[in-house]
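FAQ: What does a ligand-bound record look like?

Like this one, built around pantoate:
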Amino acid sequence: MQVLRTTAQMQAYADEQRRKGHRLVLVPTMGTLHAGHLALVNRARREGDHVTVSIFVNPTQFSPDEDLASYPCDFEADCDALGSTGKVDAVFAPEVDELYPDGAEAQAIWITSPELTKYLCGQYRPGHFRGVLTVVLKLFACCKPHVAVFGLKDAQQFYLLRRLSHDLALGIHIAGEPTVREADGLALSSRNAYLNSAERAQAVVLSRAVAQARELMEHGQQQSAPVVAKMTSIIAQAPLATLQYAEVVRTDTLVPVKAFSPGDEIMAAVAVYFDRTRLIDNAIVKIPLSQC
Ligand code: PAF
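The answer part, i.e. the structure of the complex:
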């Protein structure tokens, strides 16, 4: 497993792999790898024959009041975990000044999508998706993948990146991998490590809420309001939880809908705080054709 530290090294290495005829797959991460990331690596292996994992804690996707300073990182442990899969060919782990050579403040070009970030996390994390879209485009420019794999837990991110590739004609296939869960349903996240034991026990309400939303939508519910009400009431069962949002959106527009039509792809999503720890979860449902 090669470890590449500079953009120039990574680009030269990717060019060489392309010349050899490999189908390059990139798994972008911010490190602190867990089983969810390893599922992305497995998916990457199925999508191509050369897998690069990038590890970069991107400062521009954190707002000043978020957890950049305390974001967990253990590069050695991450490399050990990736090495032991036997499925990763290269790790791209640049320093901040490799990707932001003049400093983030001096950068004049940013990628934004005001349309797709009005709701869900976008409305509560101003600047977050600008940072994500911009850094992922940089990672694409360095790693030159044919395919990039992202987790569907961060569904708004996934749909934005799919549009990034489509709208900017990048020609990169954006693959979404289903969320990996703990035995009780909690979606795996690096931020779960911040929860104390009482919060951890109650955090199961997120997955219960979106599972109930799925159940309703798959079995004939055609209106959003009862789905939102169900999710809200399940989150309210956890005294330590503070609901930030419970929304039902179309996945193509990421805009809330009042009602669904057969064939629509609809996402029910929640964001919940446990003290300062913010967790998200979602269920994505293709509304059955037979029900209406
Ligand atoms: O999902 C993440 O870990 C990050 O947002 C990403 C895509 C690696 C960009 O920094």
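Follow-up question: can I read anything off the structure? Yes, for example: The first strand starts at residue 2 and ends at 4.
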